[in-house]
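Shape matters. Shown next:

___
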Amino acid sequence: MKALFLLVFIGVMIGVGIYSKKKVKDTNDFFLGGRNMGAWMSAFAYGTSYFSAVIFIGYAGGLGWKYGVSASWIGMGNAVFGCWLAWKMLAQKTRDMTHNLDVRTMPEFFEKRYESKNMKFIAALVMFVFLVPYTASVYKGLGYIFESSFGISFNTVILGMAILTAFYLLLGGYVATAINDFIQGIVMLIGSILMVFFVVNNDAVGGFSGAFTKLSALDSGLGMVFSDSSRRLSLMSMIFMTSFGVWGLPQMIHKFYAVKDDHAIKRGTIISTIFAFVIGVSAYFTGSLGRLFFIEEGVAVMPQGNADMVVPLMLEKALPDALLGVIVVLILSASMSTLASLVLVSSSTISIDFIKGYVKPDLSDQKTMSIMKVFCALFVALSYVMAVFQSNTIVYLMSLSWGIVSGMFLGPYVWGIWWKKTTKFGAWAGFLGGGIVIGGYLILEKLGILLIDMPIISCIAMIVSSITVPLVSLLGKETNTALIQKAFGEATIEN
């Protein structure tokens, strides 16, 4: 039964890719879906890119084990701050300014908003290099769940998923991704609700009241709705990083470039928030129950000593075979959309920002799209290699990616769309401030000096970036008036 669900899902994805191929005429269609995506498509594309195997396997399992039921606050924070507030604050401003400046990528945005080709170059380089670990973390999550559920080797699973992602993405680009995201989103909603129901009602848990009682018996802090003081700072850093980190991630902001109009943005805000609440809370609450399935002589023992195996092995114990097939498809759904988004924005950095932007500005649209497809395949291959040979946990890999990318981009991007007085030097200060925080941490890590966890460092990088941008902007020369008027749509620039 599990295999049947999987085969049907793969067949649908391939079918959508073939169907979407007919709708892709140029790079604008391939990368942005013609900037014509409605509310449901945009909201589900945002939500499914947000939640992947990284959340369901790495974060839900590892953080649920660490914090208990209070880990559910991460899912709530993601819904309120990562979706509702993000759409409210960023969606319309992003759509309007990217239209006004005629930009398709975040590096292009930095170049035209701040009149800096060097900023474009650095942004593109950071995206291509540091989104690879994020993609690798998604592959690792998929590998664990398939290895546990189907007995297929970790490397074989990752290779198969890499090939599948490349296949349907190369055929239909963002159009295929958006249609698949909508289908995958429906699977995720239904699967998440069923997952919570069966896990909670398993004998090991004993219902909602039993869950709180049994977790508290293992450790009083695990059954607390509000985390105890020893875990509070760490938990708050996870809420902050996973909620506000998406504000600076190119693959998430990309969804706002493609949304059709203001009406779609208003509806998409509500849809994405509800979606994120159901998926996020379901994932983290389920993960918090993991300890109850691995008790030996009254003590919870982490399976294989690996937090990334908690959820796969728990689901194998708690769910009937047919439902396990649905959940596997759920996690595959969440991951495929995230992978496609990451691959699209990363390949664009080479084809649009580097080659067309620097090497050959007169490159035709069709050749640009062909080059983008080549680098889509290359990025998938690099991510596969890193997933196979990188031994770090999923949480670490994702925190590293979010820390460096959001740590550098968050301040310059958010201030850039909201504040007219944001200057090039202010933006550079945000870039460097966030980058130095993460770079310094990595150096200390290599030296064996680890003072705090990677997620906390990621939060610090984002805060530093957000503070330095306005401070330095106030000290420097303002951006030229004509550019500001064009960016904010306040006047027509005359030649």
Summary: The chain has a mean pLDDT of 81. Residues 194 and 323 are 8 Å apart (CA to CA). The beta strands are 295-296, 299-300. The radius of gyration is 22 Å.
